[in-house]
Design brief:
Strand content: 35-45%
Shape: elongated
Largest sheet: 3 strands, antiparallel
Number of helices: 1
Helix content: 10-25%
Radius of gyration: 17 Å
Amino acid sequence: MDPHSISCTFSNLLEQKTVEWTTATVVNDLNLDPDQGILQGTSQTSSLQLSSAQLVKLKAAGVDNPEHIFTCKIFAHPSKSPIIATQTINIYTPGKLILLNMVID
């Protein structure tokens, strides 16, 4: 599998935040290591590069479900309330996905 990158952007920030990335899929030793990004104006974009090995682990943990939900989160000041964004990726086995296009006259 080729590596895959996902990102999330938080806006209206007054200072740089630490972005936490998690996945709903339980995987041992996934070792997520996001790029925190930098504050540019009032926005910060964090990205997460998923290596081939990480994608293989996710696919194995998902068994027959190709859907994996990732969450990126920061804590707002001063309330410390979380601001959350989610993104879903689907991991398929090459050659096992068949798309049919049916035309009926």
